Amino acid sequence: MADMCGGGTKFESDFKLIKQGAEAKLYEGTYLGRPTIVKERFKKSYRHVDLDNHLTKERMKSEARAVLRCKLAGIRTPALYLVDFERRRIYMEHIQNSTTMKDYIAEISEGTVNGNAEDLLMKLNPVAQVIGKMLGTLHANNIIHGDLTTSNMLLVKDGSEMPTVVLIDFGLSRVDSSVEDKGVDLYVLERALISTHANIDQLFQTILSAYVKENKTESQAVLKKLDEVRARGRKRIMVG
Ligand SMILES: Nc1ncnc2c1ncn2[C@@H]1O[C@H](COP(=O)(O)OP(=O)(O)OP(=O)(O)O)[C@@H](O)[C@H]1O
């Protein structure tokens, strides 16, 4: 094997496991001299091996395709360095000095006097604008993220006035999409915001206002779909 080195593999000596998620293991290290994150998807033993290989390969392909489309559209994502289908690994840029939006909101909330919602919204306004603009661009380019949560947005602390937001984890993404898909994408984000961050219902409105400006041609149709998806969600909750 090409990457064997001494008793262990070269990969294991070069990369350190940093997270074991539901779908994948995450490693950090250096690849071709650059700080790198490697995402290695698990084998699912409950699935037939051929089906599992096929599904994993498709997911990795759609992840790579979406990242490329984002780059063309000017949306910041980690650069892809290598896609190794055989070992189920994607090597990507390690976004340095970053924090997830989830942690950032929690951090800002802690520093807000008595959890004052107005104060909190004012502080989060610049980053909400950037997120809305980014999502408007994403959808205007027919890219669906598929898992828009505040853990999948990284905020780079580079001291600049305009926040830099990097979108990650495109494992459920698609690049061929309908207005319905876009409505669902926004609904996922709304639910994620409501369930993890109390006190900031208004934040989603700020994100939507910026979204509308960026995705002018179809935003009204997407917002209408969003309303329909919300209504379906409420019905499901009532029926149980
Ligand atoms: N390229 C990157 N640069 C910096 N940090 C990253 C990068 N990719 C992932 N992370 C960090 O690792 C976390 C998990 O990443 P990711 O969502 O891709 O993995 P996952 O296994 O799908 O996670 P989960 O099971 O929680 O959805 C992110 O929230 C982020 O903190």
Account of the 3D structure:
There is one protein chain. The chain is of the alpha+beta class. It has two domains: 4-93, 2-Layer Sandwich (Phosphorylase Kinase, domain 1), CATH 3.30.200; 98-239, Transferase(Phosphotransferase), domain 1, CATH 1.10.510. Helices cover 49% and strands 20% of the residues. The protein is built from seven helices and ten strands. The strands form three sheets. The chain has a five-stranded antiparallel β-sheet with strand order 3-4-5-7-6. β4 (24-31) and β5 form a beta hairpin. α4 packs parallel to α6 (201-214) and α5 (179-196) packs across α7. The protein is globular and about 55 Å long. Residues 1-7 have low confidence and may be disordered. It binds adenosine-5'-triphosphate (ATP).
What attributes characterize this protein structure?
nucleotide-binding, Phosphorylase Kinase, domain 1, ATP-binding, Transferase(Phosphotransferase), domain 1, transferase, ATP binding, disordered N terminus, 2 domains, three-stranded antiparallel beta sheet, 240 residues, binds adenosine-5'-triphosphate, 7 helices, globular, five-stranded antiparallel beta sheet, EC 2.7.11.1, alpha+beta
